[in-house]
Amino acid sequence: MKLDELGNLRRTNLSTQITPKLAGKEVVVMGRVGDARDLGGIKFFILSDIAGAVQITAPKAKTDKKLLAKIDELTKESSVAVKGKVVAAKQAPRGVEVLPLEIRVLNLASTPLPLDPRGRVKANLDTRLDARGLDLRRSESLAIFKIRHQALQAIREHLLSQDFIEVQTPKIVATATESGAALFPVSYFDREAFLSQSPQLYKEVLTGAFERVFEVGPIFRAEEHDTPRHLNEATSIDIEVAYATADDVMDILEELVYRAFNEVKKKCAEELKVLGHKLEVPKKPFPRLTYDEALKRLERAGLKVPWGEDLPTPAEKKLGELVGGAYFVVDWPTAIKPFYILPKKDNPKLCAAFDLMFKGLELASGGTRVHQKELLVKQLKQKGLNPESFESHLKNMMAVPPHAGWGLGLDRLTMVLTGVDNVRECVLFPRDRKRLTP
Ligand code: ATP
Ligand code: MG
């Protein structure tokens, strides 16, 4: 194989730009080889690219023998460049085809393929993830990632229009933000460090300088989960806002999720069709029920959760059925939320924390934060954490204004926007308990 197959050849058109109007023109298309057929008098194959597909047709009588032999060598999913003449042809898809004058094989796929990206032979998720490069060529995969892209785009536009500053905080850190249990250790020269579980502490400090910040970045959780909604590396959209409370940032979250649903519905109609997903935009305002109300509704439905406990998965599911769509659960017991959440003045057993749920799936968590150092120290101790390990953070929190914020899982949001039931489908190269490659 030559090292420079592409040479100075460049694509002139995407597949879908080839229309009968271009008849007679010479074009160069590039893409991957799809279905090929030999009908005796003609050979043809489908060339697909990011825009769609076009048929390459070689009438045997009119085509150079070497070129015909080259077509025979093409394997499915190989990357090719085709220079050829556009011909209007009623029998071809979209009424047009390209008669090849030159074909360059840019990268030949070996056979058999580990999976069929056209999806005619169904493969299980593990096989697909092992061959993720090919799997991402499936139209369903492409649809999921276009939707994810569109949602993130909508979210970013919304936050930027609200005067947020986008920031990047360190991912190598010295302490946990929640508890020590779920940290991945890394060796940091002669010390131990960890992969960041959340930008929580940094974004709080930043409210003192930038007032309104957001970050889209990885979070690492060393939990040994094996569920359809947990990953060990996830993408979190985090915001933190100075001079604000939980209610204020819930409003922002509601508007932003609403906008993401609407934009995806409007701009990704094709992709939703490919996935067979009928996207319903949740109605505003999203219901806000307190933790106490949630327990009562669950009990009435025959599911008793002791006060003070987190809602176990079956309870979350049940509540999702009872309330439906998107809803907030607010005013959680202080004991089960992190140290940086502000207890309620009138009843310190409860705190100003909220979760955003969608049909039983937690999408986001947030709350009003503690901004005074003394209270932070007290709460760290109450949670059994050592304030000394948080010394540099506590120093940085000096004179930080009252603030509130949340973290929204982009991978889980993509699950509900696409209607898929496993979060691994929504991540390019998922990391879970068993999977570290590709
Ligand atoms: P859960 O209770 O579902 O395990 P959590 O309460 O531990 O989630 P938070 O620390 O509140 O998660 O993180 C905020 C958001 O980040 C979550 O609501 C979720 O959307 C996302 N997220 C957190 N952990 C994971 C994970 N392991 N995999 C995928 N997304 C996650
Ligand atoms: Mg949470």
Overview of the structural elements:
The chain is built from 12 helices and 16 strands. The protein is an alpha+beta fold and 438 residues long. It folds into 2 domains: 15-107, OB fold (Dihydrolipoamide Acetyltransferase, E2P) (Beta Barrel), CATH 2.40.50.140; 134-426, Bira Bifunctional Protein, Domain 2 (BirA Bifunctional Protein, domain 2, 2-Layer Sandwich), CATH 3.30.930. The protein has an 8-stranded mixed β-sheet. A hairpin with a 2-residue loop joins strand 8 and strand 9. Helix 4 (139-161) packs across helix 6. The chain starts with 25 loop residues before the first strand and ends in a 20-residue tail after the last helix. The model has no long low-confidence stretch (mean pLDDT 96). Residues 355, 362, 365 line the site of magnesium ion.
Report on the biggest sheet.
Answer: 8 strands, mixed
CATH architecture of the largest domain: 2-Layer Sandwich
* CATH T-level topology of the largest domain: BirA Bifunctional Protein, domain 2
Contiguous runs where pLDDT drops below 50 for at least 5 residues? none
Helix count, DSSP H or I runs of 4 or more residues:
12
Bound chemical compounds: adenosine-5'-triphosphate, magnesium ion
CATH superfamily of the largest domain: Bira Bifunctional Protein, Domain 2
The helix-strand sequence is EEEHEEHHHEEEEHEEHHEHHEEEHHEH
Rg, Cα atoms, Å? 27 Å
CATH class categorisation of the largest domain: Alpha Beta
Number of strands: 16
Gap from first CA to last CA: 26 Å
Helix content: 25-40%
Give the neighbour order of strands across the main sheet.
Answer: 6-10-11-16-15-14-13-12
Strand fraction: 25-35%
Shape: elongated
Give the rounded overall mean pLDDT: 96
Look at the helices and sheets and give the structural class.
alpha+beta
Number of domains: 2
